[in-house]
Amino acid sequence: MSKKQPITLNINNRDHKIEVEPRKTLVDAIRDDCGQTGTHIGCEHGICGACTVLVDGEPVRSCLMFAVQADGKTIRTVEGLANGDELHPMQKAFMDHHGLQCGFCTPGFLMLAVGVLEREPDISDEDLLDVLSSNLCRCTGYQNIIKAVRAAAAEMRGPR
Ligand code: FES
Ligand code: FES
After folding, report:
1. How many domains are contained in the chain?
2. CA 50–ligand 2 middle distance (angstroms)
3. Nearest 5 degrees, angle CA 4-CA 10-CA 50?
4. Distance in angstroms (rounded) separating the CA atoms of residues 64 and 83
5. Are residues 60 and 113 in the same domain?
6. pLDDT tens-digit readout, 66-96
7. Smallest Cα–Cα separation from 72: which of 118, 5, 133?
8. Of 59, 80, 101, which residue is a domain's last?
9. Which among 31, 32, 54, 80 could disulfide-bond with 12, CB atoms 3.0 to 4.6 Å apart, if both were Cys?
């Protein structure tokens, strides 16, 4: 077993000072060491996107990143989307448009969509669909996820 390294993960504006082996993935550290279990683990090799979080604002598959690589970076997870009792527009849109069934893929889709729309609010519909095609859902058939993200995108852009 290799020696543990001290790192600080800033998750949703809170510092978590933890010690991890260099081989530990970011998603395992987020869940096991920081107690934030909203981020899900599906395939564990970069295919499904269930583990997507934002690292310094960029959507990242946290099963493909080592926790030590995120030392000192700003991480956002699904737990940080709502503002108290007020859901983020993306969360609300997923509820309103039935964009989830079992919910396993949902945290990853939420973080992917929020990350992309915050960076590129005027993204074309074609590019948005291309982005969403990178995550997998076994339940919904995708149409309601797409409807939800389109609706949230319009709300996040606001009146023009
Ligand atoms: S668990 Fe990370 S991409 Fe599937
Ligand atoms: S809602 Fe079940 S996997 Fe997407």
Report:
1. 2
2. 10
3. 85
4. 29
5. no
6. 999 999 999 999 999 999 999 999 999 999 9
7. 5
8. 80
9. 80
The encoded tokens of residue 9 equal: 């993960």
From 33, 51, 80, the end of a domain falls on: 80
**What's the pTM?**
0.97
| Residue-range definition of the domain harbouring residue 55 | 5-80
Pocket test for ligand 1, best of 28, 63, 65, 105 (most atoms within 8 A of CB): 63
Could you tell me where the DSSP H helices lie in the chain? Answer: 26-28, 89-96, 106-119, 125-132, 143-157
Span 106-149, pLDDT tens digits: 999 999 999 999 999 999 999 999 999 999 999 999 999 999 99
CA dist., res. 44 & res. 143, Å (int): 25
